[in-house]
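Quick one - inputs below.
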Amino acid sequence: MSDTPASLGTAPDGSHIADLGQILPAGHGLVTAKSSRYRRIWLDTFDHRLAASGFTLYQQGAGRSARTFLVGPEGGVMAVFEGTLAKKMAGDLPKEMAKVIGKLLGLRALLEVGRAAVTVTSAAVVDELDKTICRLWIESAEGAGSRVSIVPLTGYQTEADLVCSAVAAAGLSWSQRPMWLDLPEGSRHGDPPLRPTLVPEERAGTAVARLLAHLFAQIELNAPGAIARHDTEFLHDLRVAVRRGRSALKLLSPLLPPDEIEPLAAELKWLGDVTTAARDLDVQLLQLPLVRSSLPSHWGNQLDPLADLLAHKRRQSHKKLAQHLSSERFWGLVGWDLGPLQAAEPDCGSLEDLAAGIIASAHRRVLRRGGQIGDDSPPESLHSLRKRCKELRYAIEFFSDLFDPAAVATAIKELKVLQDNLGEHQDAEVHAAMLAKLGEELYASDAGPGAILATGMAIAAMAERQAVARSGFHEYFVRFSRPAARAAFASLTGRPVR
Amino acid sequence: MKVVACYGIKGGVGKTSAAVNLAYLWAKSGRRTLLWDLDPQAAATFLFRVKPRVKGGAKGLVKANNPLDAHLKATDFENLDLLPADFSYRNLDLALGSTAKPTRRLRRLLRPLATRYDMVVLDCPPSVSLVSENVLEAADVVAVPLVPSTLSLRTFDQLASFAEFRGRGSGQLVGFLSMVDRRRSMHRKLAEELPGEHPNILSAYIPASSLVERMGEERAPVVTWAPRSAPARSYRALWAALENLLQSGAGPSPKED
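Output:
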């Protein structure tokens, strides 16, 4: 029985098992088994989480002989599933696979990222007693070269290590890179766009234009997934890109031509607004299991009519969302001509100075707004502070390339604690308001008293959640404004914090 | 995880030949299979080209905590691993006797392997001893090869009584005729009549064949290198009968330690 791990390596195109036979340790030989050709489909999330963590997931064969393999970072097959994966969310995975990659996938769906015909040739490496001590596989796909896998067998790890050393000494390089990443374009899906790296000498206009271009690319790439509803993260990421774009324009508005900024800001606001309803419903549906479990015993089941109503509304809002994301207005936005921004030459000194000023000013705003919040302040004041915190976070992230990574990490860590508290408060507020509205609709429909009562209990649970977050705010804000946290921001920007 | 033991009081009746062929057939059917060679003669270990050596010997094996993983060896066949024999297994009785709950030790040792294997085949040494009691405790089905003779049947009945006495039920023990020479009228008669007369004797039987003896030269189960031969067909029939038994839930009810 094959054991994990195995070692993955790349071999020159056209490598043959026979060639490898000549480089084995003395006394060892190869018994070639057979070559098989498979149609292989690789799966990964839209943002390539599996590849980034060294995992490869693929489906091979068709019909009754179809199998799905999960290969781990060390190259060993970690789980095999008889058949193909019909549903592709973490919760739908076979148990053995979910155990390994369930957390990594989170809310992301598995999508096809590449397909190719792969030829697999296998051979047994035998010792002087003709005992098989490990297996060799050569896998090759057109355009992606060949890869050698050395598969150790139970109880023969030392012997397999010797073979690994011999093969490596013969000049084959070892790699964890999944084969699908080397497939030619057309056989694999494109990579998510990389965030542009800023350099201190860059002109502010160019930097902003490049950042915005990247955000527009994110919006454009996530739109098809949001329309197809592969998973809820497509819409979420699209909206994050919109918010970042809006923040960028707002933070840089004093430096850029208003005629260029205002119409673009209006279009980004439009996209943010038309995607809000669908996202709020997504969040409600995602939170529903938690809401159910927060209710006493059987009351959770009484929320079924609410779940149905939410699902119905989500379908309706998705239709509208799909229309918006396919509209000329949407395509006009993602194809926005950023040339004039690029040409703008604000009188602002170096990009580093500009960035430090923007971050310091955003930080001051957070401190000022937070300091004004008292026990009697309305929930809106916390929501407003939350937005300022997001602006500060985006500003740090936009310009992170220009500063010391450790200082960036420390500042974000300090900010995140406050953001989590404000997020919890706002989420509970939004959910409670939405549940109250849905409760009215349930009351007007045929839903029984159980559903109304359970919805009421869910609203009460949300109110409790909000109250807990509210009562904790002061402590979190004091923490954020303490001298050590101020020093972290001062160290980041090089400017003192009053 | 299911456990099938090839067991008999008498030596040289085809226990090891049955064990290696059955283990291979289970592995080939896609079950992750372990063959444990409990016989110090190490014939099964030899057949799979594995060195008959277990670090720490019988004593170390039964005493340490969760010790089996470190001794497992892959065979040349996919899905089939071997736990090799060691000459110290001649004292396995003594080693088992020195443990707490000595008759259940084997079962306890196998328990951690349940996530790793679907099937375990035990190739047992010929004896009635503490090892035998452990085998009866651990196995879902005990397959007993019987040479076609009245004495063999008598021994099988004794074993069945012993199994019942151990509280494992008569369904656990199944016999099959081995080394059947169809040129001999007595063998033919028993092969045809016994399964009908005796509920625990299978109709599948293994013929006497030089091919079975040649396994020592080929060092592989006969079903791999002479798949169309009479013995290979017989082992497949025996495997199918045992597989049916396991599928139908035959065997003893589980016991708590």
